[in-house]
Write a structure and sequence with these properties.
By secondary structure, this protein is of the alpha/beta class. The protein is 51% helix and 10% strand. The chain has 14 helices and 8 strands. Strand 5 (132-136), helix 7 and strand 6 form a beta-alpha-beta unit.
């Protein structure tokens, strides 16, 4: 995206003293529920009130949203509380209805971002709009696909753009509902620093107890805002109950978050240092997770060796691995001495795991 510096203009104009906050229920359920939550959030850091009107679900048979009637409820939210409104759009019809009802911010969901056909249809329907449009990352970790969606919108003269990081689907189970894959978002941020970046900790964690920690990581990485699903009675929510917080919990989260701003030279230094350390923390966590997975594979190898009465130490295989890792390390600027120390330690831990299995 050439000349993309203007993408941050809409956020700069808001002149906020805190991160941008988009909050509200996963789904609009009833008019009473929508208005009650909005009134509880109006005197808070919330800038946009979100509610899902059309809910794309993985499998049929689940609650799929109240439909267009929910847009009338959002209009009442704006009239009664003054909060600006936001909702997800997934096709041309959604866009037209949302614009007719003066929704202030539209976001495109992960299931839509994954399809260039859907993105193009939405971009055509939004051509020239001055509404804010945010693009969630696609369900799979593909940076080009994510940026492709933004570029399709940008080419239609939609200048008030931003992106939402909501994590990525994975077959392997982890503590997250959708793995953050922080490095991918960091790469996007480094390539396009003028593209506002919002975190959706609700969909990343799938667990309200993890919302704060993930949000703090995002702020340490210089994210511009948060989209947090908020419900007056989360346990009774019609969709995604486990990941929604109460309005009071949201207010407490915002009070507890450490927000670092660049105010002078020293603050700028500290902010950049914190950002670098946050990136290292993300990478370190990934390293530990990958090492854990490696040792699980070692356990399986131990079982195979035990079944065939094969010795745990296989020197030829070890030397092959070491030689390859030394060569790969050199390409990444890592010294031979460092690679030797690291992989000798990994190899020893792998032997320990296999010996435990072999010895029963």
């Amino acid at each position: 995206m050439e000349n993309s510096a203007g993408l941050r203009t809409w956020l700069d104009k808001m002149n906020l003293d805190h991160p941008l906050v988009i909050a509200g229920p996963c789904s609009a359920e009833t008019e009473e529920q929508v208005l009650k939550i909005a009134h509880e959030l109006k005197d808070s850091d919330v800038n946009y009130y979100r509610a899902g009107i059309w809910k794309p679900r993985t499998r049929p048979g689940n609650f799929e949203g109240v439909g267009a009637i929910g847009l009338e409820w959002l209009k009442k939210v704006k009239e009664e509380t003054g909060l600006k409104t936001a909702t997800e759009v997934a096709n041309r019809a959604h866009v037209e209805l949302a614009l007719e009802n003066d929704v202030d911010l539209l976001w495109i969901g992960a299931r839509s971002t994954v399809s260039p056909f859907i993105i193009q249809e939405i971009a055509d329907a939004l051509e020239g709009t001055d509404k804010i449009v945010l693009v969630k990352n696609p369900v799979n970790p593909d940076l080009s696909l994510w940026l492709g969606g933004v570029e399709r919108l940008y080419s239609k003269n939609i200048k008030n753009l931003g992106v939402i990081h909501r994590g990525f689907s994975t077959y392997e189970k982890s503590k997250y509902r959708n793995n953050p894959e922080w490095q991918l978002a960091i790469e996007l941020q480094n390539k396009f620093p003028d593209l506002p970046l919002i975190l959706d900790p609700s969909h990343i964690t799938g667990n309200r107890e993890m919302i704060f920690d993930v949000s703090q990581t995002a702020l340490d990485l210089n994210y511009d805002g948060l989209m947090i699903e908020t419900h007056n009675n989360p346990d009774k929510a019609w969709s995604d109950a486990a990941q929604q917080v109460t309005p009071e919990s949201l207010k407490q989260i915002m009070r507890d978050l450490k927000i670092r701003k660049e105010t002078d030279e020293e603050a700028d230094y500290n902010n950049k240092l914190t950002n670098c350390r946050a990136q290292i923390d993300v990478i370190d966590n990934s390293l530990v997770e990958m090492l854990g997975k490696r040792m699980k594979v070692s356990d399986e190898i131990g079982k195979l060796k035990k079944s065939r009465n094969v010795a745990v130490l296989q020197s030829k295989r070890w030397n092959e691995i070491l030689g390859k890792m030394i060569m790969d390390g050199e390409e990444k600027g890592l010294s031979e001495e460092f690679i030797l120390r690291i992989f000798k330690a990994i190899h020893q831990e792998s032997i320990n795991h296999q010996e435990k299995v072999v010895k029963g």
